[in-house]
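Q: I have four molecules that I believe assemble together. Could you output structure tokens for the complex as a whole instead of separate predictions?
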Amino acid sequence: MRWLLLLLGMAAAQPRSGTQDMSRELQAMQADDSANPGMLWMQEGEALFQRREGLAGKACADCHASLAGVAARYPAWDPATAAPIDLAGRIQQCRAERQQAAPLPRESEPLLALTVFVARQSRGMALAPPADPRLAPARARGEALFRQRRGQLNLSCAQCHEERAGLRLGSALIPEGHANGYPQYRLEWQALGSLQRRLRNCMVGVRATAPAYGAAEYLELELFLAQRGAGLPVEAPAVRP
Amino acid sequence: MARVLLNLPRSAAKGAVIEIRTLIMHPMESGFRPGMNGSILPRDIITRFRCSYNGEEVFRAELSPAIAANPFISFTTVATESGTLSFTWEGDNDFRQTETRDIAVT
Amino acid sequence: MNRRPLLAGALLALTLRPAAATPEDEAAALRAFTGGAALREGRVALDIPPLVENGNTVPLKVTVQSPMTAADHCTAIALFNEKNPQPQVITARFGPRAGRAELATHMRLATSQKILAVAAMSDGSFWSTSAEVIVTLAACIES
Amino acid sequence: MTSSARAVLALALLVAGPAWAQGDAARGRAIVTNRQKGLCLLCHSGPFPEERFQGNLAPSLAGAGRRWTAAALRARITDSQGLNPGSIMPSYGAVQGLRDVAPAFRDKPILTEAEIEDVVAFLLTLDDE
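A: Yes, here they are, computed for all four components at once.
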């Protein structure tokens, strides 16, 4: 019954960033640009943003000045493909079409670097997922995936990160699992990684199959998570255990 | 070239103690970790870090596999005169990288 | 890179495994730094979190009380550990031009253990302090 | 298997008493405290002083042997979700009703019947609260 009360209490509460569940020292590491290792990728992204690439001989910076606020609004609807697109996907698309440059694979270092450079420009801004009704079906599928039990351990995202957030799995505090810090520097990875990588972690953790990076299932989950964490500040590059 | 982040003031008053914070991208592969096939991945770490101020060494550190990936090292030095601070990281597999920053001391 | 995640995987799929240094290893490493001189308690402060969520990156700072003058200064700070595969962590050498005797870094901890910080002074004395750090076990890891 | 058929089976496990091979409590303890094999301490705590970090998603295992019979323990471990579909406790001996199981684990229970008997034998020894 104690748990039921806890659940009811959480349902009414505001979303809680994983930052609030970290030690004072990790919070300080995240907040300090001179100690946050994710800033190494940020700096690389800044350099890549200025670099001319591809047959078009254009740099990102030739078209884009400030991208403040952009990351807070992704994933968005992409009319060209009539599908949702996340920030990394948008950068891939821009690179292919505007720069006519060789594709950067998901989770590659340059794509993570460019993504975190753009995402950081929204640091401190509230996650504001677009209300575009065309996103609604995919977002609903994402919510269904979030609540779907899977894998040999037969657990859903929601069972841990919604119904049992704040409790301890072994010694690890279960966070609410919000998507406001990506790409993030995860100490476990000793590297920067995307939300898709983190989702993949959980899927394999419950001994389930994990779709390939870029798969529609991830986009759908990303859409739902953006809605679920609406209002939380963008923290990219967040630091997480 | 490994990515490096250096944080130090561009200018300082003569005699002031300035803080220098450094990050360098490096896996610091410990030499104790098994790889995918179960065999131990060979050690690949940064072993030495030095900072010189107008050619004179003011700080040096010997690193071990117990230093985290993407090493962070922070220390202080006295702003003595205008000039150049030079930072060098050296390690396994002939790793060697040097970065410089100018400082104006008034 | 091996990116096969596991729930509650290894005791620590950490970068630092397997066997821990022995107490003799740590004593030998300490002796190599001090030349066998006795350690005195005091003058050294070690700021390290008592409980860490992940041993891969543990922030720490060592501060030594010293006037940092030509006549009286700290010449080195060294850190040692008990249960990583090797006892050494980092040894920093500097002199009066440092202005302050301070060192901050991010270290790895294979498991819960005691960390020893030692400062060498220009008068040949050695000062130390230690701190216990508890490393929690990661529940979801990529091994 | 339909959910009602599964519930019947689970109930049968609860009350039945076919000749179960006797488990080994020491082996059972090793399974319970192994975080990759039994996974128990991720959610449960228990009287394991050497285990520093134990979860709090589920009740303590202390006193399990006093609260439950062997048959009840066996049923709960084998197919907790057959008894209570909302339970987060994995069904350690069941492979039905799962989806998207990774190839390495497909059609394999988390624990074998013999391992479950070991765990049952161990849990029966936990009679102190």
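A: One point stands out. The longest helix of chain C spans residues 23-34.
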